[in-house]
Amino acid sequence: MTDDEPAAAPVSRRWLFADQLGPHFLDVPDQLVLLVESRAVFRRRRFHRAKAHLILSALRHRARELGDAAIHRTTETYREALDGIDERITVCDPTSRPARDLVRRLETEGLVDVLPERGFVLPQSQFERWAHGRRRLLLEDFYRDVRRLHDLLLDENGEPVGGRWNYDQENRQPPPRRVRRLADATGVPDPWWPDEDDLDAEVRDELDRWQRDHDVEFVGEDGPRRYAVTRAEAVTALEWFVEHRLDGFGPHEDAMLEQDRWLSHSVLSPAINLGLLHPLEIAQRVVRAHTEGTARLSSVEGFLRQVVGWREYVWHVYWHTGEEYRQASALGAHDPLPRWFAELDPDGEVGANCLAHVLRAVREDGWTHHIQRLMVLGNWALQRGYDPAELSDWFQRSFVDGYDWVMLPNVVGMSQHADGGFMATKPYAGGGAYINRMSDYCGGCAYDPKVRVGERACPFTAGYWAFLARVRPRLEGNPRMAQALRGLDRLADLDAVIDQERARGTAAP
Ligand code: SF4
After folding, report:
1. Residue to mutate, 383, 439, 441, 464, ligand 1, most ligand atoms under 8 Å from C-beta
2. Where are the alpha helices (DSSP H) in 348-490?
3. Residue 273 host element (H or E)
4. What is the mean pLDDT of the chain?
5. How far is C-alpha 397 from the geometric centre of its chain's CA atoms?
């Protein structure tokens, strides 16, 4: 530096929220940091215990990594954590509306400076320019433009490698026949699991104490930690997935097996949503795997679609739609969640094998893959008319990768069709036939997916027709529903189905 050059501004202390823990939230590797644990967050609402464990463990591991560079505070509220810090604090725009409101207020008071968000592929301003003037914000258009913008899986002419943008057809296969685990057919190894350490033990003891003191209530089990809490763990999990599981990811990504919760999924969403991995680095890594010949095109495309397509799209829809989106209920759904559903407690109450299995998986792992969320849990709630905002809140609290920005569009828009078709052109409702085709659940069930009326009537099949009959007046003008609604008229036993489902009411199936 010469005498004439202005001195570089000193790098500020960076306040990192618990979902901003990766290196890309810092300007320089040795930046000073503020990390805050707020007990009030866990006291206000009933979270999955594995999620509380994950967040606290991730914060404490980050604090340990940073050593003297970190101020790590445990306070009742975030605001208290700023007391007595007499230096400039910057914070990347947080991911939820309440947190953004808070940092804006603190900025007005001169306590922090707010920087643009990080951790996503497309800046919000760029999405708004993309959305401007479009009648519909179609995922497919958005996804292709993100791929063009970042040169992901394109040939030298800017066309998609392989000549197609979409490999959904190859990627929506049922599970292989006569196997209990995908590994029986493909040999795919389990996902990479982390080893717990002293910080996990400390967190577990602390959560036990909170519960013993009736200070905080949780749902779900805090079994062995399955998800990465450090950058090193997250990178290891990513590499393991790319090397051992990515190639087989696509074909059975929608399949469900009772004895195999993970199939060939990456299970990286908790780490990505803690900010430990950047979605673009993941996208570039999986594209490289295809270029190097270790992962088939359809699997890589399907995975890209999830990470830089759908994930990025719901992030932008969350901000684009505004707070009133939370109250949307275009299908008139307002019922509260029943206890066995809300508390992840199907044992002894739920005979529907698919639903019981998925609720148990959420209780034990705080995670299921997207089809179990959409076509079992979401489909069930849609058919029964659960309140979309309450359901979204439940998904956010009960899943280790759940955040307001993820769940609100996914639940209110995609799964419950409560936004009247802004995100999805028709409701994701399905009967037992879909679940039977895509899983092995029905073989061990008290119900029969083909039966609509009587003791063995599958609650998803009967529920599907009862749902259609109930929402028919609201969907009649939707051309994509025309065929399904015509099907209603052909059901000779529709009245019996409706009476039966009315009588079943909110009882566990
Ligand atoms: Fe689920 Fe119906 Fe199949 Fe039972 S028969 S597992 S309730 S879809």
Report:
1. 441
2. 353-365, 370-371, 379-384, 388-398, 404-407, 432-438, 459-475, 482-489
3. helix 269-273
4. 95
5. 11
Nearest CA, atom 3, ligand 1: 442
Residue in 353, 358, 376 to alter for ligand 1 test, most ligand atoms within 8 A of Cβ: 353
What residue's CA is closest to ligand 1, atom 7? 352
The whole-number pLDDT of residue 135 equals 80
Mutate to test the pocket of ligand 1, among 349, 354, 383, 450 (most ligand atoms within 8 A of CB): 354
pTM for the predicted model, two decimal places: 0.95
Query: What are the structural domains, with CATH classification, of the chain?
Result: 12-115 (3.40.50.620), 124-191+226-321 (1.25.40.80), 324-504 (1.10.579.10)
Q: What is the mean pLDDT of residues 429-457?
A: 96
Q: What average pLDDT does this structure show over 373-394? A: 97
**Nearest-CA residue for atom 1 of ligand 1:** 354
Does 464 contact ligand 1 (Cβ within 6 A)?
no
Cα dist from 100 to 104, 106, 114, 324, 402, whole Å: 6, 10, 9, 16, 18
Indicate whether residue 439 lines ligand 1 (CB < 6 A): no
What residues contact 482, with CB distance under 8 A and at least 6 apart?
A: none
pLDDT digits (tens, 9 = 90+) for 177-219: 999 999 999 999 999 999 999 999 999 999 999 999 998 999 9
CA of 466 to the centre of ligand 1 (A): 16
